[in-house]
Amino acid sequence: MREVSILGVGQTPVREHWDLSLRQLAVEAGRAAMADAGVDHLDAIYVSNMNSDRLGGQRHLGALVADYLGQRGVEAVKLEAACGSAGSAMRQGLLAVASGQIDAALVIGVEKLTESLGRETTAALATAADADFEVEHGITFVGLNALIMRRYMHEFGYSHRDFAPFALTAHANAAGNPNALYRYAISERDYERGREVADPIRLYDASPIGDGAAALLLVPAERAPGSVRVVGSASATDTLAVHDREDLLRLKAGELSAGRAYRQAGVGPEDIDLFELHDAFSIMAALSLEACGFAPRGQGVRLGLDGDILRGGRIPISTMGGLKARGHPVGATGLYQLVEATLQLRGQAGALQIDGARTAMTQNIGGSGATIVTHILQTPSGS
């Protein structure tokens, strides 16, 4: 298997894009990645998306995007794994290039969520849960995460206020990211006064949906010796329904995918300079930190309370706003994480730059932990 590098990146701002269609968003991000890489011909395109058919009446995104990118004739497919779609598409593109069958793969994540009614969007997102045993009984993803968060607080003795550093950190970082949806800082008072969504989850515990697209162009490492390399990639699954899990407070798929990625990369948690985690809800940030070995079980919240997740801390997270403040265009989110990690490792993160960053991790979660994809990126000098 060949080593693989990220030669180009592209993204659109996360917004309510009333003036841009799904295809236009995908093409804008894809063209930006191709221009960044200096590449005008592709061998394959992998498009990640969750809701285009249900909310936009459009399937068959692979061929659509290939056509409008001027790449008719190339292999192109759409991949879906709920909120983990983009990480999953990245892995397929990576495997294609590593196999030697593909020399230039463009991976694009795209989602358009803001032009449908709220109840329609909520119903579409709920299809990532167990239709028979969760959705049929009226549960939503906010409700599922509220159950998990309430149990975590009970089990380990935390209050709601203890989760505030996750939201405060994300918003502080997003203030410096022109592509973020919510470019403003919040206070602990703002966090505590946020309206209740599903007890104990309040407004600032939940990430906002949005429209957007992000893209990466992958090539064999020998073609891009100075580019960021993908040194670890793994995907794992757990039960779709939360009530079927052995441990409600454990992201088993996160542990498995992180462990495999660490072994591939030859690194451990102590070697990671920044972590773009899937902070769709505050509780998921804590559980993801624990699953990846940055904190023992029940201690993920302490990393926030102790300042370890800040830009100058032991394990900076959500360095450009994360899902919480950059926004969560579901099928594109994992690629936004990878684009942001790449910019950090290139030293192109501007005021949000993590000094000396050489090794970065991303973790993209589908559903409430049923699919989790972990990637580790490294600068050539970080090997």
Strand order of the largest sheet: 3-2-4-7-1-8-11-10-9
Beta-strand segment tally: 11
Number of helices: 13
Radius of gyration: 19 Å
The major sheet is characterized as: 9 strands, mixed
Termini gap: 17 Å
Beta-strand content bin = 15-25%
Uncertain regions spanning at least 5 consecutive residues: none
- Calculate the mean pLDDT score and round it: 97
Order of helices and strands: EHEHHEHEHHHHEEEEHEHHHHEE
Structural class: alpha/beta
Gross morphology is: globular
Helix content: 25-40%
Describe the structure.
This protein has 383 residues and is α/β, with parallel strands linked by helices. 35% of the residues lie in helices and 18% in strands. Strands 3-2-4-7-1-8-11-10-9 form a 9-stranded mixed beta sheet, sandwiched between helices. Helix 1 (22-37) crosses helix 3 (61-68) and helix 4 (85-99) crosses helix 13. The longest helix has 16 residues, at 22-37. The radius of gyration is 19 Å and the shape is globular. It starts with a strand and ends in a 5-residue tail after the last strand.
